[in-house]
Design brief:
Blueprint: H1 2-5, H2 7-19, E1 34-36, E2 47-53, H3 57-73, E3 77-83, H4 86-99, E4 105-109, H5 113-119, H6 126-132, H7 140-144, E5 156-157, E6 163-168, H8 169-174, H9 183-193, E7 201-204, H10 211-223, H11 234-248, H12 261-269, E8 273-279, H13 282-285, E9 295-298, E10 308-309, E11 313-317, H14 324-334, H15 337-347, H16 354-357, H17 362-365, H18 369-375, E12 379-380, H19 388-403, H20 409-426
Helix pairs in contact: 3-15, 10-11, 10-19, 19-20
Length: 431
């Protein structure tokens, strides 16, 4: 009786969840979190475009600037930019895929794009983008996150970040060693820099059981010549064996399995690790706190090749829009070399276009950002795959088992591959 009595309430909540979807294509209404352009009129000739995003204040303001500029150069177009919290926005996409209540343009985290492509949230705009003629300027990693397994493109990357190695140069100089470039040099550096009596480790990273852990593990798999498409390959097993070996030898704390990326950086800032796997965003949020020692970035060390992994956001044209042509025009305008450079300089992010990186000296002259700009040449996307969360879980689960010694790396990676076999059988991964 108790369970049955809840049905009306659940039904009401479902109706409400559908009803609070943001402005429909035919509506001119706005919410408290929406900014409507000055070009709005009540005539039927106006093309009303809605954009959903979860940016913070700085990027939200610049998105509105681009919308205002577009409206000025495209009379008869009105753009409503609406902020939603990230989780709420993702839920709205899920509901909207069924109800048809979607914005005209939507933002999505790059590893999630494939999932929403599979749900039918985004339009195939391949032919439009190819006609634009500028796709060859985008870095392969970010662009691949907008692409399905058949090569169709459902959006454009907006900004990016990746990973590099941050070194305490006071510690390295005192030990008489250079910044490592290979795995052998890296392990040798860890051996010299680790000081058990002082609880100082040679290296810190995140191997936590969530997407942050997967994010930091992926570069090691690709550096060894492996990929997430075949986790039981000799190359992937070698990578996991190498990382677990760092723990066994005391060069990397077992606490890495509990550390998010901020925790790993905190160990570095406290000089409890000499090197840390670090993301672009930490330049802005963490480096200003370091005043007691010198530091420098370098590429993550390579085995067979250099590797990194991308983060960042994409924008796509949503299914069912009445104004696909205008939406594509907005995306390509936002994605020009100059606007990408403006955006990423303003937000402290990395450009997703190679030619954009050449337009501002900050990405070539800044000693920190220049390293990340170089790493973008080697950065891979997470996936893309509609079941990326399942893939990610298999990766961090194998890493945890290996680093904690619960399973041999080979066994852990074979178990991960077995878990993913039916996933890949249904939908092969491109990488």
């Amino acid at each position: 009786m108790k369970a049955f009595s809840k049905l009306p309430l659940l039904f009401i909540l479902l109706i409400l969840s559908i009803g609070i979807i943001g402005c429909s294509k035919s509506s001119n209404n706005t919410t408290a979190n929406a900014t409507t352009g000055a070009a709005a009129t009540n005539t039927s000739a106006v093309k009303n475009i809605t954009i959903w995003h979860y940016f913070g204040d700085t990027e939200a303001k610049f998105l509105q600037t681009l919308a205002d500029e577009f409206m000025q150069s495209h009379p008869g177009t009105n753009i409503t930019v609406t902020f939603m919290a990230r989780e709420a926005l993702m839920n709205q996409y899920t509901v909207g895929a069924v109800s048809g209540q979607l914005p005209d343009i939507g933002m999505v985290d790059s590893p999630d794009h494939a999932s929403y492509i599979a749900l039918g949230v985004f339009e195939d705009i391949t032919s439009d983008l190819k006609a634009w003629g500028q796709l060859d300027q985008f870095y392969p990693g970010p662009l691949s996150s907008c692409t399905d397994a058949s090569g169709k493109i459902y959006g454009l990357p907006n900004n990016s970040n990746c990973l590099a190695l941050l070194c305490n140069m006071d510690m390295l100089n005192a030990a008489g060693i250079q910044k490592p470039t290979t795995w052998d040099e890296f392990e040798a550096a860890c051996a010299k820099l680790t000081k058990p009596a002082q609880q100082i480790y040679g290296f810190s990273m995140s191997a936590i059981s969530n997407e942050e852990g997967t994010f930091q593990i992926i570069p090691w798999l690709y550096s060894a010549g492996g990929s997430v498409a075949k986790l039981d390959s000799p190359e992937c097993i070698r990578a996991m064996d190498f990382l677990s070996g760092l723990v066994k030898k005391g060069y990397l704390s077992k606490e890495a399995v509990n550390w998010g990326q901020g925790d790993a950086m905190n160990a570095f800032k406290a000089q409890k690790s000499a090197m840390v796997e670090s993301g672009t965003w930490q330049i802005q949020y963490d480096l200003p706190d370091i005043k007691d020692f010198k530091y420098e970035y370098t590429l993550l060390p390579k085995d067979k090749k250099y590797a990194s992994v991308i983060g960042g956001e994409n924008f796509g044209v949503c299914a069912g829009t009445k104004y696909k042509d205008v939406c594509v025009q907005f995306l390509t305008n936002m994605g020009t070399a100059e606007n990408v450079a403006r955006w990423c300089e303003n937000a402290g992010k990395l450009p997703v276009r190679a030619d954009s990186a050449k337009l501002r000296k900050i990405w070539t002259d800044d000693p920190n950002l220049s390293v990340f700009s170089g790493a973008m040449q080697y950065a891979v996307a997470r996936g893309p795959h509609p079941e990326w969360p399942t893939i990610s879980k298999a990766i961090y689960t194998a890493a945890q088992a290996s680093l904690l010694g619960a399973q041999a790396p080979a066994d852990a990676m074979k178990a991960a591959a077995a878990t993913l076999a039916p996933v890949y059988a249904k939908n092969p991964i491109a990488q």
